[in-house]
Amino acid sequence: MARHAVTLIPGDGIGVETSAAMQRVVEASGADIEWQGAEAGESAIRAHGVPLPPSTIESVKRTGVAIKGPVTTPVGTGFRSVNVALRQALELYVCLRPVHSIPGAGGRYDDVDLVIVRENSEDLYAGMEFEAGSEEAAELIALCEEAGLGRIRPDSGISIKPISVTATRAIVRYAFDYALAHRRSKVTAVHKANIMKHTDGLFLSVAREVAAEYEGRVAFDDRIVDAFCMNMVIDPSQFDVVVFPNLYGDIASDLGAGLVGGLGIASGANIGEKYAVFEAVHGSAPDIAGKNIANPTAEILSAAMMLDHMGEQACAERIRAAVRSVYAEGETLTADIRKASGSSLAAATCTEFTDALVQKLGCG
Ligand code: NAI
Fold first, then answer.
1. Hey, is 81 helix, strand or coil?
2. Is any atom of ligand 1 closer than 6 Å to the C-beta of 106?
3. Interval between CA 254 and ligand 1 midpoint (Å)
4. Confidence class for position 76, pLDDT limits 50, 70, 90
5. In terms of residue numbers, what domain contains 342?
6. Cα gap 24→190, rounded to integer Å
7. Residue 13, by phi and psi: left (phi above 0), alpha (psi -120 to 50) or beta?
């Protein structure tokens, strides 16, 4: 088996615990990994004075692949999101988030199997914001009035929502190619084109153009985002591959996670032409950090996606089989899953759950 160099960014909060668990499970799967540690978030501020040091980006550029724990982003401060900066620096234009039921995980459904493909580089996440009361906000407000767009209150903060033909074409093509490669039959584009004609409307019309290239091979339909949410809750089986602009994709990922057992099991990847960074959907969970009670499944399943990406499908499948087996047995599950399933059984710690997985992988 080939040895693979992987950049490991544990991140903040529960990231420290879930990353250690993930490492143990990946090693127990038989994958031969050379971990190259790197920092982001609060640990990076302590060590380097900045939340995303150049050495972290350089490490990912060297290895090509990273697995990252969550990073705390203080709300409403000048601190720019490390995740957004990392995605921009490495041109990770795809955010891939599978929503799969794991029987025993306490989900609302036991048969969900869809994939969220979220555009990762623009939309309201582009980080183009103007503070209320700033000169730039006042200029923009004046410009909008001059253009006859109506009045914006002078004490408004403003975020810009760019949606381009280029980025939309790239993400929708990725969704269709993913569907073909994974024998999936339909792509659904989600938008609010009825209200935001020049952004979401553009997203929809480009999606339709791309869909025409795949006609006869992959089916296509579209949903308005609010109707999509309702349909997801009522019957998620109607969705297969679902492609979103950035913000809706972020919200839909948590909705999907909620249907299958919660954030503790929701995995993901950020993918570009050259590099890929794998990470769980959840954040740093400051409320439970340092207590050894976090569920590491999401990061472990993100690592399985990473192993697929590196051509180590057998190791990835061993990990997924071990996860399914521990959940099906139901003896060693973390507190979030006990709560989601309404179970009064004692919860396992992060370490105990990881021990159970490692044992399943034949390394106990
Ligand atoms: P969160 O995902 O950290 O937590 C939401 C709730 O889910 C909490 O009650 C938490 O205890 C629970 N939870 C999350 N992951 C869990 C796990 N693995 N096991 C058990 N319970 C789990 O979201 P929140 O509180 O909104 O964000 C906290 C911080 O994380 C913020 O600074 C936010 O910006 C950041 N964040 C970072 C992300 C990343 O780095 N990829 C993604 C999302 C949020």
1. coil
2. no
3. 11
4. low
5. 1-107+261-364
6. 38
7. left
Query: Are residues 21 and 96 located together in one domain of the fold?
Result: yes
Catalytic residue among 177, 226, 235, 291: 226
In this structure, the number of other CB atoms found within 10 A of the CB of residue 209 comes to: 13
Contact by Cβ (8 Å): 336, 264 = yes
- The verdict on the CB of residue 9 being under 6 Å from ligand 1 is no
| Per-residue pLDDT tens over the stretch 10-41 | 999 999 999 999 999 999 999 999 999 999 99
- Gyration radius of the chain's alpha carbons: 21
Q: Is the dihedral of CA 76, 82, 88, 91 positive or negative?
A: negative
- Asked whether 336 lines ligand 1 (CB < 6 A), one says yes
Contact 333, 357 (CB under 8 A): no
How many distinct structural domains can be found in the chain? 3
Amino acid letter for position 320: R
Tell me which of 174, 192, 214, 360 is the catalytic residue. 192
341 occurs within a structural domain:
yes
* Burial group, residue 91, by CB count within 10 angstroms (0-12, 13-18, 19+): middle
Using DSSP bridges, classify how beta strands 65-68 and 276-279 pair: parallel, antiparallel or unpaired. Answer: parallel
Q: Is the pTM of this model over 0.90?
A: yes
User: Phi and psi (nearest 5°) for 123?
Assistant: 70, -160
Query: For residues 323 and 295, is the Cβ–Cβ distance under 8 A?
Result: no
Query: Taking the C-alpha atoms of 226, 108, 321 and 313 in order, what is their torsion angle to the nearest 10 degrees?
Result: 0
272, 179: one domain: no
Q: Is 24 in contact with 358 (CB distance < 8 Å)? A: yes
Residue whose Cα lies nearest atom 11 of ligand 1: it is 285
Place of tokens 């949903």: 223
